Amino acid sequence: MFKFLKGVVGGSGTGPKDLPYNIGESYASAWGSWTHYRGTSKDDGSLVSIFSLSGSSAQDGHLAAGRNGVKRLRTVRHPNILSFLHSTEVETFDGSATKVTIYIVTEPVMPLSEKIKELGLEGTQRDEYYAWGLHQIAKAVSFLNNDCKLVHGNVCLASVVVTQTLDWKLHAFDVLSEFDVNSSSTGPMLQYEWLVGSQYKSMELLKSDWAAIRKSPPWSIDSWGLGCLIYELFSGTKLTKTEELRSTASIPKSLLPDYQRLLSSMPSRRLNTSKLIENSEYFQNKLVETIQFMEILNLKDSVERDTFFRKLPNLAEQLPRQIVLKKLLPLLASALEFGAAAAPALTALLKMGSWLSPEEFSVKVLPTIVKLFSSNDRAIRVSLLQHIDQYGESLSAQIVDEQIYPHVATGFADTSAFLRELTLKSMLVLAPKLSQRTISASLLKYLSKLQVDEEPAIRTNTTILLGNIAGYLNEGTRKRVLINAFTARALRDNFSPARGAGVMALSATSSYYDMTEIGTRILPNLVVLTIDPDGDVRSKAFQAVDQFLQLVKQHHDRITTGDAIGHSNSGISSISGDTGLLGWAMSSLTAKGKVSEHAPLAPANANTPLVSVASTASSGLDATETVPVPSSLNNDFADHQPVPSSPTSTDGWGEIENGIHEENYSDKDGWDDIEPPAALVSIQAAQKRPVALPKPQVTNARPKNTGKAFVDEDEEEYWDSKAAHTPKASKHLNKPAASPDDELWGEIAAPPPKTIVRPLAVGRGRGVRSTPKLGAQRIGRTSSS
């Protein structure tokens, strides 16, 4: 039932006040007596099209045909038929005159004639688009004639409209009627055929030979109309008389035979529109085949889909750009979103998206990408991370922090080294958009684990990432993380590019360290690398030492001139030239997760390569000689150093040494720094180099041995470990069982100095010096040792 409203039209040019849509500007053309308007919904502002038809009285013949068109459009549904949304009929009064108006609201469309002018296609691209449009209209006509036994009655250029996705749709159903197969009937089969222009009528319809029409196939009238549409389309002019259909100069040669059969003078010999779709050579082109494949994607097997999507990026460049962006792109996004498309389709999606403006990209592509991050398909995840630089800048901070990062973070602990590395590299794009809470509570924990990953390339790139995102950490986090990550781990890594990356990271982040940290923690660790076995590491170490010494000298000069009195702990600016991003290590991992120990590193710039792989020798140094120190220094050390309550490392990684294992790792991010006691600050330099220890002063708790000097084993282990900053596999002692994380952290952090005098253990040889052991060791003692 139609809804008849009686009232006064509200506003000017906005339509009836009770119509839930706003009426905008009209198009220049429309079918018949209808007027086609642009419109919007009053609820959500979505675009619509509004068609209106007015008459002087309710009995007007045009209004009766219009009501038939509304009824038919509402009940007939097909992908290539205009979608109905709403209709109403309004009666208004203007003095003594009455005006009745019918409104039909549909999906937003544009007349075909105006859309063709707007697109301005030429040559092959025009023919391919016309082929796709005719293919759609032929399917709609075939559906009406063959499946519904309906006759449209006036197929022409004016009865076709184009959607926002450039699909062609059939409308203007005012004349539409059932095909009457009752040969005994004598009345007209098409009640409103008088609305059809004579130039569009076939010979039998023009003569009103209803008996011949009833004996003809159901498609005979509409096949003639389709021929008229083809003529108007390719000639670019509106058909004015039937004789013009004989002019075939503008018709493509591949379509000409079918065009002539559609316009056959004998109704029974006219080509069925379903046969036109199946047999015509004209419809076999790249655009039609590509869209057809996309529309039946779910029916294709995985091999066909993979092959298609790998070819699609190159194929898209050959198709009309507007059709690719407005038709193929939505189809591709939908296929990816609902799982019908394979991972290679993401490459095509991003390539098509690169042709959009930033605003359109955010609306048409980004929502699909965000949803894909929740996919469990590892191939999709890899493809997303590999192309993150193409869309990462378009992501908002809120979306990254709340919707993307939780899914990406699962890759940090993935069993595939290749995926772990891709996840790590993606943080260079995502980290600037993360909140401080997410960085501190989640990201730094994962990076702490990756710095001890089994893959050397991942360890190296973790150091590089930390150097690059240091500016996004708050001051407290930087002080707690950077020096510990670079000096305690990166500079002691047995993979030379990792050590080189640590040196470069320290140089690039030099503005974040105060003078105390530079003098007591950074320079001592860098100086050791000036005798590194790897030449590239040595070169970078010398450059870094020169840089930090220059900073210290500048600080000294400022204090001397009175410019920085009382500000010795202020931040120092980086030397010019170290402010750029560090380059990634060249990936040594394949998709299967294999690694090469000789992975080269990408240079940060053309002049300063980040890390070289000329040598991958361990950075462990064999300390064969020791420098004697006065006994007074040793005695002073023994007398004044507080005895720590537990063996806690002073390099900031003591929590593992103290027994904090994996089960409570979530409470810490792995970067906590334990500051050394105040008494140790003055002797930091002495702690950073190997020395020969003289006989310590012992108490009565340990009996004197007049044969050989006795040295506490804990003290000897500490100094020896300082002499060799990288553990050697051949020097490992038997250790008690520990978790894997405990072992990794134990190997990179040297135990603190200890001078506590302990009673002689049972079974230990009195006065016997233990053999010096190189590297940071943890001695497992039992009652029988």
Automatic annotation (TrEMBL):
A GO term, aspect molecular function: ATP binding
Organism: Protea cynaroides
Cited SUPFAM superfamilies: ARM repeat, Protein kinase-like (PK-like)
Location of the region described as Disordered in the Swiss-Prot/TrEMBL record: 622-656, 719-785
The protein's name: Protein kinase domain-containing protein
Per-repeat ranges for HEAT: 365-403
PANTHER family, alphabetized: N-TERMINAL KINASE-LIKE PROTEIN (PTHR12984:SF3), SCY1-RELATED S/T PROTEIN KINASE-LIKE (PTHR12984)
SMART domains reported in the protein's UniProt record: S_TKc
Domain Protein kinase: 1-283
Domain of life: Eukaryota
